[in-house]
Design a protein that fits this description.
The strands form 2 sheets. Strands 3-2-1-4-5-6 form a 6-stranded parallel sheet. A 6-stranded parallel sheet has the order 9-8-7-10-11-12, with helices on both faces. The longest helix is centred in the first third of the chain and has 10 residues. Helix 7 links the parallel strand 5 and strand 6. Helix content is about 35%, strand content about 15%. The radius of gyration is 20 Å and the shape is globular.
């Protein structure tokens, strides 16, 4: 067990919650090399985790011919691949490349013919957190496959932060000595979002003499926010579209708190030890028991009920303010 590929080719939040698995493997097999197979836009996450030794870009590989994909896998000389996020095309390539141990959940039909170490557990019906469920895939390796949720954050290894760019430093300097609050209002549809009017109410409650508020998101998300009236104030700075992912990580690392629904930046803030305040619906399987941020300063505010169609999370700005002030 010298070279292990971790395959997780989905979103930032999912990748963040896979990093503790990498740390756990390194704890039990310290001499192994971990190769992370992910999407191009999550490369910065892998680069920030000191447990990961190399990165394979699936977005680039999937454009290659099947033979070239197989050769790329062969060149890694991997003994093991763990399909944390199972994709049948990746399973096919891993099998053709002759990787000796191929691990996946046994609940996918295509895994039955392409993987030789199957683990049977249900993500949808489990009471475990997503990060804990990932550990179940380690059973075929003889590594302990369970961990207390309170211990998960210790295995992020999320500390190889890139040097802050001039644009990041400029934004940080604007806060002077104020507490820096990051608001990440949109989620690209991956979560039930808090409405912009509630964020506006929260901004109005944050004393400009004490707080600097930064709005983050992609350029497209920034456009959407501005089309809906924006999030403005004398202490508010719009940074949407200003940072790539590496810069966003460096930026969050220099802030004090981040408020968001269940999104990638929320999990980044939690891994960095920041005050990560997550806004959630109680509905399974999107509830905080499955997807809450994991960190020593992570907090969850859960609505009393799932919003009806066309409605929003019933969480008040005062509730969020109390959590900000309590820590």
């Amino acid at each position: 067990m010298k070279r292990i590929i971790i395959s997780r080719t989905d979103s930032i939040g999912d990748v963040m919650l896979t990093l503790p698995l990498c740390g756990w493997i390194k704890k039990h097999i310290p001499d192994c090399k971990l190769i992370f197979l992910g999407r191009a836009y999550t490369r910065a996450i892998a680069a920030t985790c000191h447990h990961i030794d190399a990165f394979m870009d699936w977005d680039a590989l999937k454009k290659e011919s099947p033979a070239e994909q197989v050769e790329a896998f062969v060149s890694q000389q991997a003994d093991i691949i763990i399909h944390v996020f199972p994709r049948k095309e990746i399973m096919w390539v891993a099998k053709r490349a002759g990787i000796t141990i191929r691990i996946a959940s046994g609940h996918r039909l295509h895994a039955l013919t392409k993987c030789n170490k199957l683990v049977f557990f249900s993500r949808k019906n489990s009471d475990l957190h997503e990060s804990q469920l990932n550990f179940k895939l380690l059973k075929p390796l003889g590594i302990p496959d369970s961990i207390e949720l309170s211990d998960v954050f210790r295995y992020y290894g999320f500390d190889s932060i890139a040097t802050a760019s001039s644009s990041v430093s400029e934004m940080i300097d604007r806060a002077q000595r104020k507490k820096r609050i990051v608001i990440h209002p949109l989620s690209k549809g991956s979560a039930i979002e808090w409405p912009l009017e509630r964020y506006r109410a929260l901004i109005a409650l944050l004393n400009p003499a004490e707080y600097a508020v930064y709005i983050t998101g992609t350029e497209e998300e920034g456009k959407r926010i501005r089309e809906q009236g924006g999030l403005i104030g004398e202490h508010v700075y719009d940074t949407t579209g200003c940072f790539d992912l590496s810069e966003l990580i460096a930026f969050i690392a220099q802030c004090d708190a981040l408020i968001a629904a269940s999104t990638g930046p929320l999990h980044i803030a939690a891994a960095l030890g920041k005050q990560a305040i997550g806004l959630y619906s109680p509905k399974r399987p999107i509830h905080p028991g499955r997807w809450s941020p994991i960190g020593k300063n992570a907090h969850v505010i859960c609505a009393s009920e799932h919003p009806k169609k066309g409605s929003s999370l019933l969480i008040s700005a005062d509730e969020v303010l109390r959590v900000i002030q309590r820590v």
